[in-house]
């Protein structure tokens, strides 16, 4: 195979327009593996001592040579900067995995939670039994190939146009273009390890792969190899920064991996690393021009994936379809989009707080080309989203501080919550689908109970914005939950919570939408509206009176609630439980941007590309029978 | 040359939009001909507003005065503050409102060809630019920074050339009935901006700064100064000016019952009077600065031996917070309120146990201010170098904020704040550098104010100053203002649109996609970006056209306006028409000239193209008409000016006369006053100068009340200005200790608390910055906390009758007059100024007792 020479090292002074007084960052083109040790690379939690296993520094690429070096030393320059997302990874394991740890999913307790939330929508009752069935495999499904959800309907079910010509043979369709021979101006250079196939053959079957995007570079690493610092493949893009990526858990085999990447230009690349072939989607931003902040395969689908664009749109693409110029299909959507272009609406107009605007439905009859579906949530950047373990709901967080719970099968907004203040930056579901965690610019992690649509607790312990949260499924059972978080303060925090332990807000009753929040609502709302003469915009279409005497009042049940979701007001601090961390430790020198749990430990990554693996306490492994686990982030 | 450079650059980069801008600038070459980004967004701005929220003026830098400029802008854009400054002292007769027109002279524009400046002033003094190092100039030697069209130097120069450059040349104190002071200086600037009939331009704050420097000795040099310190001093000056004025009004009113000042009317009954005095002039009239900026801190100290908790309250005008690497403002604020152990050298003297004990202390906020100023302590004193070092910690600040560190009984503890101004310090240390401010304006989004230059920026720009970006620019003071949740949501919705557009652009940029309609999508154009823009933005003729096609009233008009037009207005916010007018009623002169007769209605509906063309024509006509009216207005204004000048002359003659008299009086008075209490002043003054008053009254048409009286006060005090002040100070400081009686419980808890030496405020901190700053060699020592403690006062806590009252005014006056007040307490006393270290400028006056007795 033709192998390109190693890329040149760029003199660092030219690379960045740095000002004297600042240490120029080392621009390294090779990954460096190191094993720092010592007391500062350990931390003690209840279950034992975590130690740093290794630090893999992924090379941060310098700007492309064709890009003009930043010579403007003016710190006030208003030239737009390319979006960047630090280092984000996904860990993938090709092994067909045995079921997840027992005791992790209590079918009973889980059904309680989810069923309730679902029954809010009466016409959905048919699926309430299905939840139970899917729960078993909820987590496993996210990574397992071939998991069938007999009861949770697949996304877009009923639309025959979307039906797969489900090829049972393992000959999966590959992308069109060859990566290595590409002369696209989008891709600057591709470096494939010289003995890629040898390495692929030699590696253990259950070894972890890692895919990582760092600015304009994308790396494919084999974490099970002793020479893990040598990437299997590295792609450098020309100007576009890769902001996110995802690996299809359903289709991955040793001969085929579907990777999808989202870029700061809005473009998307479908890449198959083993054959080194790729396809570009949303080329030149034909469908949506704004950066893709998060991208994820729709669980259980071979072809469909969901991309969050920064203009507040969620778009479902099909990896194999061509792009077509998109214009909103339904009337309301057209109006909304027109509004968003030119005539901004101050008070009235399209209301993003009560519903999502389906610009194109999965059930549309026009499914010849991409996009498959388009949902406009708001005009704000979507920072992250997460798909619930039962593959039914989406939790979406935005820069304006909203958390939306969406039933993506039915394309409906279910709930809308607000952060304490500031934007929300990350979100995840508990393994059993009961709880959602969000982290944001208020330095807090909030725990939301979806079935009761309330805020359970706020977690205070970070010293800066929270950039990533994840549950540790090995430390969770039906009652006690362990999750971790990282933030811009370079800290890793670990948290334990059990629902019984937390003081629940008094008013939290079983009835979700009615009196439970209105009483709490009243106090804060009153305080906040006292200066405004205008009536409460958020509640203008609600049945609750804005006069503040709401406690006794009850909202009529689902019929109205279904159409117009009432945003939940911000809980006052005095009424919310505050949870302290069980651990808060600075684990890196640079702001952290991602974390994940594996069976063996915790993996964190930072903005400058350090990938650190922290081993779990060696003596006591809570679930020794489990194989290594690569979970989605 | 510049053109050549540009070509080079754009060939190289081929990406940035500023290049396009730049080259287009060069093509035309005539700077007056093309629009700056700011002017572009203001193109269809409609009539001027009366509240001044649509004025975007640069402030002239005459040598190291950027600290002043950045703060002034931040203050101006604080709506409540601006309103209050402009409306205080309240004029008695509203119809006379225009008489206090500020005397503004417009400086002749600077010659384009270079160095000629206005007579008598050297304009472009060497000032700090943006070149903290010798980076760029090495590459292109022959091009001076001001020749590069994208350089701030160039833009500043252009701003000066373009003008109008407003100058407040003359003293204008008598219009307000106050002697010239920091407050009047500020008021002059604000009023001049509001009254200006241009939206953009440059105003010279020199007059203001002269006055300020007169009153604040340590600013009397041309060194780089600390913006935060300046902010605190200005506020304190304003407070004392306003209160001094109120006091004088009251006193003279009391002495001379015939003269009715509004204040006097209020307090005509003796009981009322007493209650007012008891409230220490914190009448609604004078307490507005407190209302806006003042919060209350509670420090709780719990003795670990006897578990007794004591509390102590103090007020603050801003919070100075210590920084940590990789933290957020939220976290720094929480740390500010974190529990603190008082042990070892900093033990706490507990009254209950009677001795020095270990104790826990924490500070919480009891009352949240309306405007929360957060001073990030970026300058740290290092013993090693015995100088202030700048901390380049990355400290993130959110656009919205709530405070975690409130007391349980705080009112509205979940109050939400929005970031509205960021003061940025650019430079490597505390002794050099440059300040700029980035301010969220009412309806034009974020705007960068860099001395003379004013430029709209996008929201993301605000997040460039966390401290980790190259260029050494860091946020230094953050201004958060109270906001309601609904308003926040609304604004967020608006900003979302803008952000979306920018994201698209950035994407285009990165993808190398050529702009199809380049000019329209210029990153700095913000015409369509702000959805809440009120009616001014709507081209009136456009709205008319729509009114004709859409019969459904205003709401339908709003809906029907097409995307290409200016954002939909909210009719009620029209500044000139009070009642929300149905669109057709909005007939300005310009419109009448410009609008086509309603016949064209059907055509309009039918043929869009024609409509557009028509609109263009209308637009042109309208513009022409506007110009015409503008010219007329200008004429009128000039005439008025002339008239006014005449009047002024007359006044001046009068004034001179009165001055002569009063000077004599003042001389006599001065002797007396040295021994007299401050309270006696007003009466002695008012009597003799009354002839002047009568003269004036007979002469002008002004009423006898407030204004003329004020004039009197001024002239009376004119000659003895200084002495009056100092005695005033003496008065206030002498009352200091009395005022404290009520709240003493943990006076020493405070003073006992551990010094936060980590921040290295060197002991006697006046704010986080000044004290140890070698910046101003003049003695700033007494500024800090120490003067407040009686050197002799024993270390007791709860029972201290004349406890450790902290009054910034006292401290300030101590430092400015540099004689009175106890000498800076040497640091051998183990009590350190813990609080000072963390916050500054507390106005520790209690309502209770200052003027009782």
From TrEMBL, chain A:
Annotated stretches, region: Disordered: 57-145, 158-182, 521-577, 609-633
Record key words, sorted: Repeat, WD repeat
InterPro entries in the cross-refs: WD40/YVTN_repeat-like_dom_sf, WD40_repeat_dom_sf, WD40_rpt, WD_repeat_creC_regulators
Bias-annotated ranges (Polar residues): 75-91, 521-534, 615-633
Mapped WD repeat ranges: 417-458
GO terms (BP aspect): carbon catabolite repression of transcription
Record PANTHER family: AT02583P, WD REPEAT PROTEIN
Quaternary structure, from the entry: Interacts with creB.
Protein name, entry field: Catabolite repression protein creC, variant
Source organism of this protein record: Pseudoneurospora amorphoporcata
From TrEMBL, chain B:
Enzyme Commission identifier(s): 3.4.19.12
GO cellular component: cytosol; nucleus
Enzyme class at the top of the EC tree: hydrolase
Region of interest (Disordered), residue spans: 1-38, 111-135, 516-537, 553-853
Bias (Polar residues): 13-24, 516-532, 729-757
Classification via InterPro entries: Papain-like_cys_pep_sf, Peptidase_C19, Peptidase_C19_UCH, USP, USP_CS
A Pfam family matched in the record: UCH
Matching PROSITE patterns: USP_1, USP_2, USP_3
Stretches assigned to the USP domain: 57-483
Composition-biased stretches (Pro residues): 566-584
Record-level Gene Ontology MF annotations: cysteine-type deubiquitinase activity
Organism superkingdom: Eukaryota
Subunit composition and interactions: Interacts with creA, creC and qutD.
Task of the protein: Ubiquitin thioesterase component of the regulatory network controlling carbon source utilization through ubiquitination and deubiquitination involving creA, creB, creC, creD and acrB. Deubiquitinates the creA catabolic repressor and the quinate permease qutD. Also plays a role in response to carbon starvation and the control of extracellular proteases activity.
Similarity comment: Belongs to the peptidase C19 family.
Protein name: Ubiquitin carboxyl-terminal hydrolase
């Amino acid at each position: 195979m033709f192998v390109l020479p190693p890329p040149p090292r760029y003199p660092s002074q030219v690379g960045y327009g740095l000002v004297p007084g600042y240490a120029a960052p080392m621009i390294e083109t090779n990954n460096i593996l190191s094993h720092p040790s010592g007391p500062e690379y350990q931390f003690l939690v209840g279950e034992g001592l975590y130690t740093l296993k290794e630090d893999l520094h992924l090379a941060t690429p310098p700007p492309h040579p064709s890009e003009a070096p930043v010579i403007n030393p003016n710190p006030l320059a208003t030239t737009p900067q390319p979006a960047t997302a630090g280092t984000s990874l996904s860990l993938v394991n090709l092994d067909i995995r045995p079921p997840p740890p027992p005791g992790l999913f209590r079918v009973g307790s889980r059904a309680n939670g989810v069923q309730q939330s679902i029954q809010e929508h009466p016409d959905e009752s048919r699926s309430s039994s299905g939840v139970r069935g899917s729960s078993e495999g909820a987590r496993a499904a996210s990574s397992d190939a071939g998991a069938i959800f007999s009861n949770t309907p697949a996304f877009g079910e009923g639309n025959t146009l979307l039906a797969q010509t489900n090829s049972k043979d393992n000959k999966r369709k590959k992308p069109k273009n060859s990566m290595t021979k590409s002369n696209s101006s989008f891709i600057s250079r591709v470096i494939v390890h010289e003995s890629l196939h040898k390495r692929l053959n030699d590696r253990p079957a259950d070894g972890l792969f890692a895919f990582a995007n760092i600015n304009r570079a994308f790396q494919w690493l084999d974490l099970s190899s002793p020479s893990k610092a040598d990437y299997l493949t590295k792609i450098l893009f020309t100007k576009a920064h890769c902001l996110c990526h995802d690996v299809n858990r359903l289709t991955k085999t040793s001969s085929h991996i579907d990777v999808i990447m989202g870029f700061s230009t809005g473009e998307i690349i479908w890449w198959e690393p083993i054959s080194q072939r790729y396809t570009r989607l949303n080329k030149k931003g034909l469908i949506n021009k704004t950066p893709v902040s998060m991208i994820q395969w729709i669980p259980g689908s071979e072809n469909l994936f969901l991309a969050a664009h920064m203009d507040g749109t969620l778009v479902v693409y099909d990896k194999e379809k061509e792009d077509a110029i998109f214009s909103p299909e339904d009337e309301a959507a057209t109006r909304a989009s027109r509004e968003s272009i030119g005539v901004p609406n101050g008070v009235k107009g399209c209301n993003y707080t009560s519903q999502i605007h389906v610009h194109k439905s999965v059930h549309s009859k026009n499914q010849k080309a991409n996009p498959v579906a388009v949902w406009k949530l708001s005009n704000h950047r979507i920072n992250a989203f997460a798909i619930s373990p039962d593959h039914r709901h989406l939790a979406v967080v935005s820069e304006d501080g909203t958390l939306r719970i969406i039933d993506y099968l039915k394309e409906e907004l279910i709930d809308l919550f607000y952060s304490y203040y500031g934007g929300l930056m990350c979100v995840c579901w508990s393994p059993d689908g009961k709880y959602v965690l969000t982290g944001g610019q208020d330095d807090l992690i909030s725990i939301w109970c979806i079935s009761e649509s309330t805020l359970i607790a706020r977690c205070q312990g970070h010293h800066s914005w929270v950039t990533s949260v994840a549950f540790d499924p090995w430390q969770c059972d039906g009652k006690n939950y362990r999750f971790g978080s990282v933030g811009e303060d370079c800290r890793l925090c670990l948290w334990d919570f059990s629902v019984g332990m937390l003081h629940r807000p008094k008013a939290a009753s079983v009835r979700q939408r009615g009196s439970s929040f209105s009483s709490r609502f009243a106090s804060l709302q009153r305080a906040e509206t006292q200066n405004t003469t205008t009536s409460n915009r958020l509640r203008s279409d609600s049945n609750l009176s804005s006069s503040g005497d709401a406690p006794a009042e009850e909202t009529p049940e689902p019929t109205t609630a279904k159409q117009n979701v009432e945003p939940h007001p911000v809980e006052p601090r005095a009424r919310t439980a505050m949870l302290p961390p069980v651990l808060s430790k600075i684990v890196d020198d640079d702001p952290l941007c991602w974390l994940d749990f594996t069976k063996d430990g915790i993996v964190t990554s930072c903005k400058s590309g350090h990938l650190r693996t922290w081993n779990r306490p060696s003596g006591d492994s809570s679930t020794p029978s489990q194989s290594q686990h690569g979970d989605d982030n | 040359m510049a053109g050549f450079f540009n070509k080079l650059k754009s060939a190289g980069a081929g990406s940035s939009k500023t290049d396009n801008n730049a080259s287009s600038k060069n093509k035309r070459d005539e700077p007056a001909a093309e629009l700056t980004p700011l002017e572009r967004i203001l193109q269809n701005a409609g009539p001027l507003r009366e509240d001044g929220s649509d004025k975007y003026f640069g402030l002239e830098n005459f040598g190291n005065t950027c600290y002043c400029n950045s703060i002034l802008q931040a203050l101006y854009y604080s709506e409540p503050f601006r309103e209050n400054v402009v409306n205080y002292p309240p004029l008695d007769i509203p119809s006379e409102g225009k008489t206090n027109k500020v005397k503004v002279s417009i400086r002749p524009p600077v010659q384009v060809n270079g160095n000629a400046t206005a007579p008598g002033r050297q304009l472009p003094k060497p000032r700090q630019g943006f070149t903290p190092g010798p980076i760029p100039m090495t590459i292109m030697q022959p091009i001076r920074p001001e020749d590069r069209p994208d350089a701030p130097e160039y833009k500043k120069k252009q701003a000066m050339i373009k003008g109008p450059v407003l100058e407040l040349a003359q003293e204008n104190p008598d219009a307000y009935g106050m002697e010239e002071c920091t407050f009047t200086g500020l008021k002059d600037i604000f009023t001049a901006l509001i009254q200006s009939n241009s939206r953009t331009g440059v105003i010279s704050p020199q007059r203001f700064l002269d006055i300020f420097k007169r009153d604040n000795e340590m600013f009397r040099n041309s060194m780089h100064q600390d913006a935060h310190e300046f902010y605190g001093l200005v506020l304190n000056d304003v407070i004392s000016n306003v209160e001094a004025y109120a006091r004088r009004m009251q006193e003279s009113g009391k002495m001379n019952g015939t003269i009715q000042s509004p204040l006097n009317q209020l307090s005509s009954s003796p009981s009322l009077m007493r209650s007012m005095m008891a409230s220490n002039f914190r009448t609604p009239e004078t307490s507005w600065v407190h209302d806006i900026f003042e919060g209350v801190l509670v420090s709780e100290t719990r003795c670990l031996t006897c578990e007794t908790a004591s509390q102590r309250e103090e007020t603050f005008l801003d919070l100075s917070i210590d920084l940590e690497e990789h933290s957020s403002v939220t976290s720094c604020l929480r740390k500010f309120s974190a529990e603190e152990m008082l042990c070892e050298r900093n033990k706490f003297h507990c009254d209950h146990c009677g001795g020095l004990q270990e104790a826990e202390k924490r500070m919480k906020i009891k009352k949240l201010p309306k405007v929360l100023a957060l001073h990030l302590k970026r300058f740290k004193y290092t013993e090693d170098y015995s100088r202030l070092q700048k901390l380049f910690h990355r400290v993130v600040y959110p656009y919205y904020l709530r405070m975690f560190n409130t007391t349980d009984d705080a009112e509205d503890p979940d109050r939400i704040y929005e970031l509205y101004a960021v003061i940025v310090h650019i430079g490597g240390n505390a002794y050099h550098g440059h300040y700029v401010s980035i301010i969220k304006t009412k309806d034009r989004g974020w705007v960068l104010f860099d001395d003379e230059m004013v430029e709209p920026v996008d929201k993301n720009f605000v997040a460039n100053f966390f401290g980790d970006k190259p260029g050494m620019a860091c946020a230094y003071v953050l201004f958060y203002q109270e906001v309601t949740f609904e308003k926040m949501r609304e604004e967020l919705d608006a900003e979302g649109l803008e952000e979306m557009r920018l994201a698209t652009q950035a994407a285009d940029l990165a993808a190398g996609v050529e702009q199809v309609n380049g000019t329209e999508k210029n990153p700095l154009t913000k015409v369509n970006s702000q959805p809440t823009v009120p009616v001014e933005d709507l081209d009136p003729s456009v709205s008319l056209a729509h009114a004709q096609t859409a019969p459904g009233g205003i709401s339908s008009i709003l809906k029907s306006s097409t995307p290409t037009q200016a954002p939909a207005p909210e009719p009620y916010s029209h500044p000139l028409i009070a009642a929300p007018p149905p669109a057709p009623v909005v007939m300005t002169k310009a419109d009448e000239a410009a609008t086509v007769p309603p016949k064209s209605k059907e055509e309009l509906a039918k043929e869009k193209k024609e409509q557009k063309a028509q609109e263009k024509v209308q637009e042109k006509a309208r513009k022409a008409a506007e110009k015409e009216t503008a010219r007329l207005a200008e004429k009128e204004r000039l005439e008025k000016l002339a008239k006014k000048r005449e009047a002024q002359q007359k006044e001046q003659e009068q004034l001179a006369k009165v001055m002569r008299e009063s000077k004599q009086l003042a001389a006599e008075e001065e002797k007396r006053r040295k021994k007299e209490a401050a309270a006696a002043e007003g009466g002695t003054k008012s009597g003799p100068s009354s002839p002047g008053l009568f003269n004036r009254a007979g002469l002008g048409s002004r009423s006898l009340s407030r204004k003329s009286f004020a004039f009197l006060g001024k002239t009376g005090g004119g000659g003895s200005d200084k002495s009056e002040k100092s005695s005033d100070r003496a008065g206030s400081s002498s009352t200091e200790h009395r005022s404290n009686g009520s709240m003493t419980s943990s006076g020493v808890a405070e003073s006992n608390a551990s010094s936060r030496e980590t921040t290295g405020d060197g002991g006697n901190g006046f704010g986080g910055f000044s004290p140890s700053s070698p910046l101003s060699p003049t003695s700033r020592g007494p500024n800090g906390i120490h003067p407040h403690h009686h050197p002799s006062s024993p270390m007791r806590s709860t029972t201290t009758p004349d406890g450790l009252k902290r009054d910034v005014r006292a401290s300030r006056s101590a430092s400015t007059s540099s004689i009175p007040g106890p000498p800076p307490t040497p640091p051998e006393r183990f009590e350190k100024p813990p609080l000072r270290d963390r916050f500054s400028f507390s106005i520790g006056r209690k309502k209770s007792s200052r003027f009782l007795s």
